[in-house]
Specification:
- The chain is α+β, with helices and mostly antiparallel strands.
- The chain has one domain.
- Helices cover 17% and strands 48% of the residues.
- It is built from one helix and five strands; from the N terminus they run βββαββ.
- It has a five-stranded mixed beta sheet, with helices on one face.
- A hairpin with a 2-residue loop joins strand 1 and strand 2.
- The N and C termini lie far apart (26 Å).
Length: 75
């Protein structure tokens, strides 16, 4: 695993983990997952060639979401 910085026109994003250059893992410690967390992961997937992302929450109740953003939709 390694850290990656994604540079875009308006700034930069720092993903929590990149696994074998094939999945982004975003870790949260919130009460529950919300739309903003999912949007953050979706933006990371759009900005890279990586298609799979996992959103993990270790708050009150452990949660996870898997997102897939196919390269055919990336420009």
């Amino acid at each position: 695993m390694r850290f990656i910085t994604i540079i875009v026109k308006l700034g930069f994003y720092i993903a929590d983990f990149i696994v074998e250059n094939s999945a982004i893992i975003e870790i949260k410690a919130a009460e529950s997952l919300c739309e903003e967390h999912e949007a953050q992961l979706t933006n990371y997937l759009k900005a890279t060639t990586i298609e799979v992302g996992l959103l993990l929450n270790f708050g009150k109740k452990a949660q996870f979401k898997r997102k897939v953003f196919s390269s055919e939709y990336k420009k």
